[in-house]
Amino acid sequence: MSASPPAVTVRVPAKVNLHLGVGPTRPDGFHELVTVFHAVALYDVGPTLLELVGATPPATMRGRSLWPLIDGEGAEREAAPIFSELLPATAWPHHAVMMVDGHHKLIHRVGERRWELYDLAADPKEQHNLADAPGSHALFEAMRAKLVAFEEQ
């Protein structure tokens, strides 16, 4: 008798366009486009679909419904951190866990026991690691605590 295959978890961050609108005519005759983007995770899709059909997600289900954002009611709600994980494989023996919270990104390179912190607004190409920067200590520790809690789930 063969053993059951191990469970697979996929954690995928994404960005969705929640609203696209056309503003008033500018003096040059063109219109401003108004768009609202929101970072979401793949595990937010399940609760969203359940809410759409009127069902209640089980208490053990991760994620939160995106319906208030899609419906235009929740565009002002606080964005939750987005997590993703890169698991090692035969051709890629690296393990990394990542979190984006606002415009900051924290990466834990697990196998290398290394941390990287980036300000995506000021450094979108992730060239300047702020993990050890003196002015980033409080931010690093706060984000690290969230990421470690995610890793331990």
Descriptive terms for the model:
two-stranded antiparallel ribbon, alpha+beta, 31% strand, single chain, four-stranded antiparallel sheet
Descriptive notes:
With 153 residues, the chain is α+β, with helices and mostly antiparallel strands. It contains 3 helices and 6 strands, in the order ββααββββα. The strands form 2 sheets. The protein has a 4-stranded antiparallel sheet, covered by helices on one side. The chain has a two-stranded antiparallel sheet with strand order 1-2. Strand 5 and strand 6 form a beta hairpin. The relative contact order is 0.11.
Give a quick rundown of the structure.
With 153 residues, the chain is α+β, with helices and mostly antiparallel strands. It contains three helices and six strands.
Helix content: 10-25%
Question: What is the strand arrangement across the widest sheet?
Answer: 3-4-5-6
**Secondary structure category:** alpha+beta
Quickly count the helices. Answer: 3
**Low-confidence parts:** none
Count of extended strands: 6
Portion of residues in beta strands equals 25-35%
> What integer is the average pLDDT?
80
Largest sheet: 4 strands, antiparallel
What is the terminal-to-terminal distance? 30 Å
Calculate Rg over CA atoms: 19 Å
- Principal-axes geometry comes out as globular
SSE layout and pairing:
Elements: E1 13-25, E2 31-41, H1 45-52, H2 67-70, E3 82-86, E4 96-101, E5 104-109, E6 114-119, H3 137-151
Antiparallel strand pairs: 1-2, 3-4, 4-5, 5-6
